[in-house]
Fold this sequence. Notes:
By secondary structure, the chain is α/β, with parallel strands linked by helices.
Amino acid sequence: MKQGKFITLEGGEGLGKTTNLAFIQHFLIEQGREVVVTREPGGTVLAEKLRALLLETQGELISDKTELLLLFAARAQHIHNVIQPALTRGAWVLSDRFTDATYAYQGGGRGIDVATIAWLEQFVQASLQPDLTLLFDAPVELGMQRAKKRAALDRFESEQQAFFRHVRAAYLERAQQQSERIKLIDASQSLAAVQLRIQQWLETL
Ligand SMILES: Nc1ncnc2c1ncn2[C@@H]1O[C@H](COP(=O)(O)OP(=O)(O)OP(=O)(O)O)[C@@H](O)[C@H]1O
Ligand SMILES: [Mg+2]
């Protein structure tokens, strides 16, 4: 059966995920691949509506459980309608965030236990896992500085420093536990140095 590769980009705010997604997309297109670029939460019309609900800062408070379930609802839709069909026809899928972000933000940041997230992951994804995950890592302050140059902060970006330190720690713990799949990228380096590392990891695929 033809099967493409699934690559996810992870890490805290402002550390270069979106910037390097475009770099990877061009790199793969040059190799003659069909590339599907997508993001989470989001990636389908319905999942993008759920994203908007998750990121808005106005209105009713969203409980931690509701947040977790909305994220996995969006993910189920994204996998069913976009990711799995693309992989099956042999395309490479690049996603700006995926389930590692749920372990980092809802697990590390909000304090939801790992077993609950793992149960939902199994229910929604079955055996689907990324082939490669690039984790952009740098001190929280650096990402904040870079992200600040952009528009108004969303609901996650408005969290306190301590939240982001927990997110970073959870990401790093996961990278240690799943070192075969998750590759750490030192995001404090120059963009050229970062892209050289990314290219090296892509070549291993
Ligand atoms: N290695 C780098 N050195 C210097 N600046 C960088 C580097 N990587 C990215 N930037 C800049 O930092 C800013 C944030 O990058 P980007 O939007 O790609 O981050 P992100 O991880 O997608 O953030 P978010 O999680 O908030 O979407 C951009 O202005 C980008 O040009
Ligand atoms: Mg981004």
